[in-house]
Amino acid sequence: MAWDFETDPEFQKQLDWVEDFTRNEIEPLDHVLESPYDVKSPGFIKLVRPLQQQVRDRGLWACHLGPDLGGQGYGQVKLALMNEIIGSARFGPVVFGAQAPDSGNAEILAHFGTAAQKERYLAPLLDNEIVSCFSLTEPQGGADPLMISTRAVRKGEEWVIDGEKWFSTNARFAEFFIVMAVTDPDAEQPHKRASMFIVPAESPGIEIVRNVGYGATMPTHAYVRFTDVAVPLDHMLGERGQGFVVAQTRLGGGRIHHAMRTIAKARRAFDQMCERVISRSTKNELLANKQMVQEKIADSWVELEQFRLLVLRTAWLIDKYQDYRKVRRDIAAVKAAMPKLLHDIASRALHLHGSIGLSDEMPFMHWVTESYFLALADGPTEVHKVTVARQVLRDYTATSDLFPSYHLPRLRAEAVARYGQDPEILEAAL
User: β-pairing, 194-200 with 158-169?
Assistant: First the structure.
C-alpha cells in the first residue's frame, strides 16, 4: 500500500530552488517587460534568455517533455508541484519552457507531426526561439467546435483555407498557427468533418483584424481572418478528419496545467490578504481580530487546500493511467472548480485592501477578471460540469422498484430477514 503526502527530499531541493528563483529573479520581470511571448524583443533577449539558461543548467527546462525532446519527462504530480510555484509570475512558464499555448502545440506536433514538421516547427518551438498560436474558436461558434465554419478545400497540391477565428492567443507574435478547418462537411459523423493544419504566419491571406485584451493584459487575443490561405498538403496534422482527436490531445493536459498555475495566483492573493489583515487597523483593532475577516481567511485557506488536493489527486491519476480519457471526470472537475477558487480568494483580498485593492496598484482586479477568462478558456464551466455529472452517473444503477433501494422500511425488512426475529433485539432497535 502506498499513500503519501510528502515530497521526495531530492525533488524538494529542486522545488526550493524553483521558489527562490521565481520570487527573486522571475517575478521582477513582470514589472519591466510587457509580453512573455515577444521573444524577439531586446528586453526579452537581454533579461529572459539568461534566466532560461540557468533553468537549462539546472535540468528543469520543459520538464513536461520526454528526454527525447529535451525535457525530464516528469509526471503530472511533479509538474503540479513546480507549476504551483512558477505560475505566480507572468514570465514564470516561459522561463521554464512550459508556457501555453506553446506547450500544448508542442504536444500535438510531438504526437502527430511528421519528421519534416518536427524539424521545421517543433524543434525551434521547444527551444523558445519562436512562439505559436492555436486557432480553433470562431466568432459565431463560441465554445462549440461543431459550429466551426472555416473551410479547407483541396486544390491541386494545396489546401486553401477560408474563414474567421476568434481569440487566437498570441497571433501577433506567432511564427505559425495550428488551425482547425472543415475538410469533410458531408461526413456522417460530425466529429470527423474537421482537420488540423499548420499554417505559417507569413502565408498570404492571413489578416489580424484586431487584437483583443482583457483586464490589464496586453491585447494579444486576435480576431483573425483567413482569405484564400494556401498551405501545402504536407502541412496537415494527423489524418484527414482527425481534427477533434488532435485537439483533445492538447486540451486535457492544458486544463490540468491551467489549474496548477491557478493555485500559484490564488496563493499569492491569499498571502497578500493575510499580510494586509495583520498590518492594518480600524476602530482601534487589527483587521485580523475582526471575526468577519477571520471568516474570509478561514474560507480562503480551506478552499485553496481543497482545490490543491483535487489537482494533485487528478495529476496522480493521470500518471497512474497514462490516459486522459480515463481521468476525464477528474480533469473536468478541476476545470469547473478553478475559476471560482481564484475569483473568491482574489475578491476577498481586494475587499480587505479597500480602495487600493480596486486600483491598478494591486493585482486583484486583474485576477478577478482572469477568473472569468479561466471559466471560458478550454471550454466553459457549464460544459465541464455536465461532463462531471455524466461521468459520475455512469457508476450508478437505476432501480425498477416502486420505492428506492435505500427505502428504510425495505432495509429494515432485509435486516430482520438476515439477523432473525429475536424480540429483544428488535425491541431495542425500535
Answer: unpaired
Handedness of CA 151, 378, 85, 331 (dihedral sign): negative
Residues 23-49 have a mean pLDDT of 96
Contacts of range 355-363, beta carbons closer than 8 Å, 24 or more positions apart: 360/216, 363/268, 363/269
Q: What is the mean pLDDT of the chain?
A: 93
Strand partners for 168: 222
Nearest to 362 by CA among 268, 260, 296, 263: 268
- DSSP notation for 175-215: SEEEEEEES-TT-SSGGGSEEEEEEETT-TTEEEEEEE--T
Pairing mode, strands 176-182 and 132-135: parallel
Among left, alpha and beta (phi > 0; psi -120 to 50; other), residue 166 is beta
The rounded distance, in Å, linking the Cα atoms of 167 and 135 is 8
pLDDT at position 148 is 93
**Arithmetic mean of pLDDT, 306-320:** 96
Report the distance separating Cα 13 and Cα 75, nearest Å.
17
**Residues ≥6 apart with Cβ < 8 Å to 158:** 230, 231, 232, 233
Average of per-residue pLDDT across 19-35 = 96
Distance CA 126, CA 108 (A): 12
More confident residue, 266 or 144: 266
Pairwise CA distance, residues 85 & 398, whole Å: 45
> DSSP letter string over 328-353?
HHHHHHHHHHHHHHHHHHHHHHHHHT
Position 1 scores a pLDDT of 66
pLDDT at residue 163 tops 80: yes
Residue 280, SS3 per DSSP = coil
Instruction: Give me the mean pLDDT over the 80-91 stretch.
Output: 96
pLDDT at 48 over 90: yes
C-alpha cell belonging to residue 394 = 455512469
The answer to whether the peptide bond before residue 28 is cis (omega within 30 degrees of 0) is no
User: In this structure, which amino acid lies at residue 256?
Assistant: I
Residues 20 and 88 sit within 8 Å (Cβ to Cβ): no
Helix (H, G, I), strand (E, B) or coil at 402: coil
Tell me the pairing of strands 151-155 and 158-169.
antiparallel
Q: Is 228 left (phi over 0), alpha (psi -120 to 50) or beta?
A: left
- Domains recognised in the chain with CATH numbers: 9-99 (no CATH), 132-237 (2.40.110.10), 245-393 (1.20.140.10), 401-430 (no CATH)
